[in-house]
Amino acid sequence: MKTIAVLTSGGDAPGMNAAIRAVVRTALDKKFTVMGIERGYSGLINGEMIPMERRSVADIIQRGGTILKTARSEEFKTENGRKKAVQMLGKFGIDSLVVIGGDGSFRGAQELSRMSIATVGIPGTIDNDLPYTDFTIGFDTAVNTVLDAINKLRDTSTSHERVSVVEVMGRNCGDIALYSGLAGGAENIILPEKGYDQDKLCKNILEEKIKGKLHNLIVLAEGIGGAEALAKKIQEVTGIEARATKLGHIQRGGSPSCMDRILASRFGYRAVELLEEGKTSRVVGIKGAKIIDLDIDEALSVPRYFDDKLYKIANALA
Ligand code: F6P
Protein backbone atom coordinates (compact mmCIF):
# COMPACT_ATOMS: atom_id res chain seq x y z
CA MET A 1 0.00 0.00 0.00
CA LYS A 2 1.27 3.47 -0.94
CA THR A 3 2.16 6.01 1.73
CA ILE A 4 1.77 9.57 0.55
CA ALA A 5 3.03 12.58 2.46
CA VAL A 6 1.96 16.16 1.92
CA LEU A 7 3.70 19.37 2.92
CA THR A 8 3.26 23.11 2.41
CA SER A 9 6.36 25.22 1.89
CA GLY A 10 7.40 28.86 1.33
CA GLY A 11 4.93 31.72 1.79
CA ASP A 12 1.48 30.55 2.84
CA ALA A 13 -1.43 31.17 0.49
CA PRO A 14 -5.20 31.05 1.04
CA GLY A 15 -6.44 27.75 -0.34
CA MET A 16 -3.48 25.68 0.83
CA ASN A 17 -5.77 24.05 3.39
CA ALA A 18 -8.29 23.19 0.71
CA ALA A 19 -5.46 21.56 -1.25
CA ILE A 20 -4.28 19.57 1.80
CA ARG A 21 -7.87 18.43 2.36
CA ALA A 22 -8.20 17.32 -1.26
CA VAL A 23 -4.91 15.40 -1.20
CA VAL A 24 -5.71 13.68 2.09
CA ARG A 25 -9.28 12.71 1.26
CA THR A 26 -8.53 11.60 -2.30
CA ALA A 27 -5.60 9.49 -1.11
CA LEU A 28 -7.62 7.91 1.70
CA ASP A 29 -10.43 7.07 -0.73
CA LYS A 30 -7.84 5.26 -2.83
CA LYS A 31 -6.81 3.31 0.28
CA PHE A 32 -3.42 4.99 0.60
CA THR A 33 -1.87 5.88 3.93
CA VAL A 34 -1.39 9.64 4.32
CA MET A 35 1.06 11.60 6.44
CA GLY A 36 1.20 15.35 6.91
CA ILE A 37 4.65 16.92 7.23
CA GLU A 38 4.73 20.04 9.38
CA ARG A 39 6.85 23.12 8.59
CA GLY A 40 7.72 22.25 5.01
CA TYR A 41 11.16 20.93 4.13
CA SER A 42 12.47 21.90 7.53
CA GLY A 43 9.92 19.58 9.18
CA LEU A 44 10.77 16.88 6.66
CA ILE A 45 14.42 16.99 7.71
CA ASN A 46 13.41 16.88 11.38
CA GLY A 47 10.83 14.12 10.94
CA GLU A 48 7.82 16.23 11.93
CA MET A 49 5.26 13.80 10.54
CA ILE A 50 1.64 13.38 11.57
CA PRO A 51 -0.78 10.70 10.39
CA MET A 52 -3.71 12.20 8.49
CA GLU A 53 -7.27 10.88 8.64
CA ARG A 54 -10.44 12.22 7.03
CA ARG A 55 -11.17 14.08 10.24
CA SER A 56 -7.71 15.66 10.34
CA VAL A 57 -8.84 17.89 7.48
CA ALA A 58 -12.41 18.54 8.63
CA ASP A 59 -13.46 22.17 8.91
CA ILE A 60 -10.43 23.60 7.09
CA ILE A 61 -11.64 24.30 3.54
CA GLN A 62 -12.69 27.83 4.59
CA ARG A 63 -9.54 28.61 6.58
CA GLY A 64 -6.61 30.71 5.36
CA GLY A 65 -3.01 29.80 6.17
CA THR A 66 -1.96 26.17 6.34
CA ILE A 67 -2.74 23.69 9.11
CA LEU A 68 0.59 22.00 8.33
CA LYS A 69 2.43 25.27 8.91
CA THR A 70 5.13 26.39 6.55
CA ALA A 71 8.78 27.42 6.50
CA ARG A 72 11.61 28.42 4.23
CA SER A 73 14.41 25.96 4.99
CA GLU A 74 18.03 26.97 4.50
CA GLU A 75 19.23 23.48 5.50
CA PHE A 76 17.24 21.86 2.71
CA LYS A 77 19.17 23.97 0.19
CA THR A 78 22.30 22.02 1.15
CA GLU A 79 23.12 18.55 -0.16
CA ASN A 80 23.42 17.27 3.37
CA GLY A 81 20.00 18.64 4.28
CA ARG A 82 18.42 16.96 1.28
CA LYS A 83 20.11 13.65 2.14
CA LYS A 84 18.62 13.87 5.64
CA ALA A 85 15.21 14.55 4.09
CA VAL A 86 15.42 11.46 1.90
CA GLN A 87 16.51 9.34 4.87
CA MET A 88 13.56 10.64 6.86
CA LEU A 89 11.12 9.71 4.09
CA GLY A 90 12.58 6.19 4.15
CA LYS A 91 12.35 6.00 7.93
CA PHE A 92 8.63 6.80 7.86
CA GLY A 93 7.99 4.47 4.90
CA ILE A 94 6.86 7.35 2.68
CA ASP A 95 7.08 6.55 -1.01
CA SER A 96 5.44 9.63 -2.54
CA LEU A 97 5.46 13.31 -1.70
CA VAL A 98 3.02 16.09 -2.61
CA VAL A 99 4.59 19.55 -2.32
CA ILE A 100 2.27 22.56 -2.16
CA GLY A 101 4.14 25.82 -2.72
CA GLY A 102 5.70 28.24 -5.16
CA ASP A 103 8.82 28.39 -7.27
CA GLY A 104 11.33 27.76 -4.46
CA SER A 105 9.30 24.82 -3.12
CA PHE A 106 9.09 23.31 -6.59
CA ARG A 107 12.87 23.57 -6.96
CA GLY A 108 13.08 21.55 -3.73
CA ALA A 109 10.69 18.94 -5.17
CA GLN A 110 12.81 18.87 -8.34
CA GLU A 111 15.91 18.08 -6.27
CA LEU A 112 14.08 15.29 -4.44
CA SER A 113 12.82 13.78 -7.67
CA ARG A 114 16.43 13.71 -8.90
CA MET A 115 17.13 11.63 -5.77
CA SER A 116 14.44 9.12 -6.89
CA ILE A 117 11.64 10.39 -4.66
CA ALA A 118 8.20 10.25 -6.31
CA THR A 119 7.00 13.86 -6.18
CA VAL A 120 4.07 15.88 -7.45
CA GLY A 121 3.86 19.67 -7.04
CA ILE A 122 0.74 21.76 -6.51
CA PRO A 123 1.22 25.49 -7.21
CA GLY A 124 0.33 27.49 -4.11
CA THR A 125 1.46 31.11 -3.92
CA ILE A 126 -0.30 34.44 -3.99
CA ASP A 127 2.29 35.73 -6.48
CA ASN A 128 1.01 33.80 -9.53
CA ASP A 129 4.60 33.67 -10.73
CA LEU A 130 4.72 30.12 -12.10
CA PRO A 131 4.42 30.67 -15.85
CA TYR A 132 3.46 27.10 -16.79
CA THR A 133 0.05 27.56 -15.14
CA ASP A 134 -2.53 30.32 -15.65
CA PHE A 135 -3.24 30.51 -11.93
CA THR A 136 -1.77 29.44 -8.60
CA ILE A 137 -3.72 28.77 -5.42
CA GLY A 138 -4.11 31.95 -3.33
CA PHE A 139 -3.79 34.48 -6.13
CA ASP A 140 -7.52 35.05 -6.55
CA THR A 141 -8.06 35.56 -2.81
CA ALA A 142 -5.09 37.95 -2.56
CA VAL A 143 -6.39 39.98 -5.50
CA ASN A 144 -9.81 40.23 -3.84
CA THR A 145 -8.18 41.36 -0.60
CA VAL A 146 -6.31 44.09 -2.49
CA LEU A 147 -9.47 45.05 -4.33
CA ASP A 148 -11.31 45.53 -1.06
CA ALA A 149 -8.50 47.82 0.12
CA ILE A 150 -8.53 49.77 -3.16
CA ASN A 151 -12.28 50.37 -2.84
CA LYS A 152 -11.79 51.75 0.65
CA LEU A 153 -8.81 53.88 -0.29
CA ARG A 154 -10.75 55.37 -3.18
CA ASP A 155 -13.36 56.70 -0.73
CA THR A 156 -10.85 58.52 1.42
CA SER A 157 -8.71 59.65 -1.54
CA THR A 158 -11.73 61.24 -3.18
CA SER A 159 -12.83 62.97 0.02
CA HIS A 160 -9.39 64.50 0.52
CA GLU A 161 -8.64 64.93 -3.20
CA ARG A 162 -5.39 63.12 -2.71
CA VAL A 163 -3.16 60.72 -4.57
CA SER A 164 -3.11 57.23 -3.08
CA VAL A 165 -0.25 54.83 -3.72
CA VAL A 166 -0.99 51.21 -2.78
CA GLU A 167 1.93 48.82 -2.65
CA VAL A 168 1.07 45.18 -3.24
CA MET A 169 3.04 41.93 -3.02
CA GLY A 170 4.12 39.61 -5.81
CA ARG A 171 7.92 39.61 -5.65
CA ASN A 172 9.07 40.22 -9.21
CA CYS A 173 5.71 39.41 -10.69
CA GLY A 174 3.18 42.18 -11.32
CA ASP A 175 0.06 40.00 -11.58
CA ILE A 176 -1.47 40.98 -8.22
CA ALA A 177 -1.04 44.66 -9.14
CA LEU A 178 -2.32 44.20 -12.68
CA TYR A 179 -5.46 42.24 -11.80
CA SER A 180 -6.38 44.31 -8.74
CA GLY A 181 -5.56 47.55 -10.56
CA LEU A 182 -7.77 46.69 -13.51
CA ALA A 183 -10.61 45.42 -11.34
CA GLY A 184 -10.32 48.41 -9.01
CA GLY A 185 -10.23 50.98 -11.81
CA ALA A 186 -6.84 52.33 -10.73
CA GLU A 187 -5.58 55.36 -12.63
CA ASN A 188 -2.06 53.96 -12.78
CA ILE A 189 -0.66 50.45 -12.47
CA ILE A 190 3.09 50.19 -12.02
CA LEU A 191 4.67 46.82 -12.68
CA PRO A 192 8.19 45.36 -12.74
CA GLU A 193 7.48 43.89 -16.16
CA LYS A 194 6.83 47.31 -17.71
CA GLY A 195 8.86 49.82 -15.73
CA TYR A 196 7.73 53.47 -15.60
CA ASP A 197 8.84 57.04 -16.01
CA GLN A 198 8.43 58.94 -12.73
CA ASP A 199 8.47 62.40 -14.34
CA LYS A 200 5.82 61.39 -16.85
CA LEU A 201 3.69 59.92 -14.06
CA CYS A 202 3.86 63.16 -12.04
CA LYS A 203 3.05 65.22 -15.14
CA ASN A 204 -0.03 63.06 -15.85
CA ILE A 205 -1.22 63.31 -12.25
CA LEU A 206 -0.98 67.09 -12.41
CA GLU A 207 -2.79 67.27 -15.75
CA GLU A 208 -5.59 65.05 -14.48
CA LYS A 209 -5.94 67.19 -11.37
CA ILE A 210 -6.25 70.33 -13.49
CA LYS A 211 -8.98 68.61 -15.50
CA GLY A 212 -10.86 68.08 -12.22
CA LYS A 213 -9.96 64.56 -11.18
CA LEU A 214 -10.74 64.11 -7.48
CA HIS A 215 -8.34 61.30 -6.75
CA ASN A 216 -5.56 59.36 -8.36
CA LEU A 217 -5.14 55.78 -7.35
CA ILE A 218 -1.82 54.13 -8.10
CA VAL A 219 -1.26 50.41 -7.65
CA LEU A 220 2.45 49.73 -7.28
CA ALA A 221 3.91 46.22 -7.40
CA GLU A 222 6.55 45.65 -4.71
CA GLY A 223 8.99 44.42 -7.37
CA ILE A 224 9.42 47.93 -8.73
CA GLY A 225 9.71 50.08 -5.63
CA GLY A 226 8.20 51.27 -2.41
CA ALA A 227 4.94 53.21 -1.95
CA GLU A 228 6.38 55.58 0.67
CA ALA A 229 9.15 56.88 -1.61
CA LEU A 230 6.85 57.23 -4.58
CA ALA A 231 4.15 59.11 -2.64
CA LYS A 232 6.81 61.48 -1.28
CA LYS A 233 8.16 62.14 -4.76
CA ILE A 234 4.69 62.77 -6.21
CA GLN A 235 3.86 65.23 -3.44
CA GLU A 236 7.17 67.08 -3.91
CA VAL A 237 6.83 67.34 -7.69
CA THR A 238 3.10 68.00 -8.07
CA GLY A 239 2.28 69.74 -4.79
CA ILE A 240 -0.74 67.41 -4.48
CA GLU A 241 -1.08 65.57 -1.19
CA ALA A 242 -0.12 61.93 -1.56
CA ARG A 243 -0.41 59.00 0.84
CA ALA A 244 1.17 55.56 0.80
CA THR A 245 -0.39 52.28 1.92
CA LYS A 246 1.61 49.08 2.06
CA LEU A 247 -0.82 46.19 2.31
CA GLY A 248 1.85 43.67 3.35
CA HIS A 249 0.94 40.30 4.81
CA ILE A 250 -2.78 41.06 4.94
CA GLN A 251 -2.67 39.83 1.34
CA ARG A 252 -1.56 36.39 2.47
CA GLY A 253 -4.33 35.74 4.96
CA GLY A 254 -8.08 35.35 4.97
CA SER A 255 -10.65 32.81 3.96
CA PRO A 256 -9.96 31.53 0.44
CA SER A 257 -12.27 32.62 -2.37
CA CYS A 258 -14.57 30.16 -4.11
CA MET A 259 -12.16 30.14 -7.08
CA ASP A 260 -9.21 29.21 -4.88
CA ARG A 261 -11.10 26.49 -3.01
CA ILE A 262 -12.20 24.87 -6.26
CA LEU A 263 -8.77 25.22 -7.87
CA ALA A 264 -7.13 23.71 -4.79
CA SER A 265 -9.61 20.82 -4.71
CA ARG A 266 -9.06 20.06 -8.40
CA PHE A 267 -5.27 20.29 -8.05
CA GLY A 268 -5.20 18.09 -4.94
CA TYR A 269 -7.39 15.44 -6.55
CA ARG A 270 -5.30 15.37 -9.72
CA ALA A 271 -2.02 15.22 -7.79
CA VAL A 272 -3.10 11.99 -6.09
CA GLU A 273 -4.45 10.57 -9.35
CA LEU A 274 -1.01 11.13 -10.88
CA LEU A 275 0.68 9.24 -8.05
CA GLU A 276 -1.82 6.42 -8.42
CA GLU A 277 -1.05 6.29 -12.15
CA GLY A 278 2.67 6.10 -11.31
CA LYS A 279 3.33 9.48 -12.91
CA THR A 280 5.88 11.28 -10.79
CA SER A 281 8.26 14.28 -10.99
CA ARG A 282 5.26 16.22 -12.21
CA VAL A 283 3.38 19.37 -11.33
CA VAL A 284 -0.29 20.19 -11.80
CA GLY A 285 -1.64 23.44 -13.17
CA ILE A 286 -4.51 25.00 -15.06
CA LYS A 287 -4.62 26.21 -18.68
CA GLY A 288 -7.90 27.77 -19.68
CA ALA A 289 -10.47 25.68 -17.82
CA LYS A 290 -8.45 22.48 -18.02
CA ILE A 291 -6.33 20.91 -15.29
CA ILE A 292 -2.96 19.98 -16.76
CA ASP A 293 0.17 18.25 -15.54
CA LEU A 294 3.70 18.37 -16.83
CA ASP A 295 7.20 17.31 -16.01
CA ILE A 296 8.70 19.41 -13.21
CA ASP A 297 11.88 20.24 -15.21
CA GLU A 298 9.78 21.37 -18.13
CA ALA A 299 7.44 23.38 -15.90
CA LEU A 300 10.30 25.22 -14.24
CA SER A 301 11.87 26.16 -17.55
CA VAL A 302 8.76 27.77 -19.05
CA PRO A 303 9.71 31.41 -19.72
CA ARG A 304 7.94 34.22 -17.88
CA TYR A 305 4.79 35.37 -19.60
CA PHE A 306 3.29 38.82 -19.24
CA ASP A 307 -0.27 39.55 -20.30
CA ASP A 308 0.36 42.63 -22.41
CA LYS A 309 -3.23 42.70 -23.63
CA LEU A 310 -4.58 42.90 -20.08
CA TYR A 311 -2.14 45.72 -19.31
CA LYS A 312 -3.28 47.54 -22.44
CA ILE A 313 -6.94 47.12 -21.43
CA ALA A 314 -6.21 48.42 -17.92
CA ASN A 315 -4.52 51.52 -19.35
CA ALA A 316 -7.21 52.11 -21.94
CA LEU A 317 -9.93 52.02 -19.29
CA ALA A 318 -8.09 53.99 -16.60
O1 F6P B 1 5.87 34.71 -2.14
C1 F6P B 1 4.85 35.27 -1.37
C2 F6P B 1 5.29 36.58 -0.76
O2 F6P B 1 4.20 37.07 0.01
C3 F6P B 1 5.79 37.64 -1.73
O3 F6P B 1 4.75 38.29 -2.41
C4 F6P B 1 6.58 38.53 -0.81
O4 F6P B 1 7.56 39.23 -1.52
C5 F6P B 1 7.19 37.55 0.15
O5 F6P B 1 6.39 36.38 0.10
C6 F6P B 1 7.27 38.02 1.59
O6 F6P B 1 7.93 37.06 2.32
P1 F6P B 1 7.91 36.96 3.91
O7 F6P B 1 6.59 36.41 4.32
O8 F6P B 1 9.04 36.05 4.22
O9 F6P B 1 8.10 38.35 4.42
UniProtKB/TrEMBL annotation:
InterPro entries: ATP_PFK, ATP_PFK_prok-type, PFKA_ATP_prok, Phosphofructokinase_CS, Phosphofructokinase_dom, PKF_sf
Keyword Transcription regulation: no
Binding, ADP: R21, A22, V23, V24, R25, R154, G185, A186, E187, K211, K213, L214, H215
GO molecular function: 6-phosphofructokinase activity
Stretches assigned to the Phosphofructokinase domain: 4-275
Activity modulation: Allosterically activated by ADP and other diphosphonucleosides, and allosterically inhibited by phosphoenolpyruvate.
Subcellular location: Cytoplasm
Residues that coordinate or bind Mg(2+): D103
Binding residues for substrate: T125, I126, D127, R162, M169, G170, R171, E222, R243, H249, I250, Q251, R252
Keyword annotations from UniProtKB, A to Z: Allosteric enzyme, ATP-binding, Cytoplasm, Glycolysis, Kinase, Magnesium, Metal-binding, Nucleotide-binding, Transferase
Chemical reaction(s) catalysed: beta-D-fructose 6-phosphate + ATP = beta-D-fructose 1,6-bisphosphate + ADP + H(+)
Pathway the protein takes part in: Carbohydrate degradation; glycolysis; D-glyceraldehyde 3-phosphate and glycerone phosphate from D-glucose: step 3/4
Major localization class: cytoplasm
Superkingdom to which the source organism belongs: Bacteria
Root EC class: transferase
PROSITE patterns: PHOSPHOFRUCTOKINASE
Pfam families: PFK
Cofactor(s) the protein requires to work: Mg(2+)
EC numbers on record: 2.7.1.11
Active site: D127
Subunit structure: Homotetramer.
Entry's family note: Belongs to the phosphofructokinase type A (PFKA) family. ATP-dependent PFK group I subfamily. Prokaryotic clade 'B1' sub-subfamily.
Its biological purpose: Catalyzes the phosphorylation of D-fructose 6-phosphate to fructose 1,6-bisphosphate by ATP, the first committing step of glycolysis.
Protein name: ATP-dependent 6-phosphofructokinase
Gene coding for it: pfkA
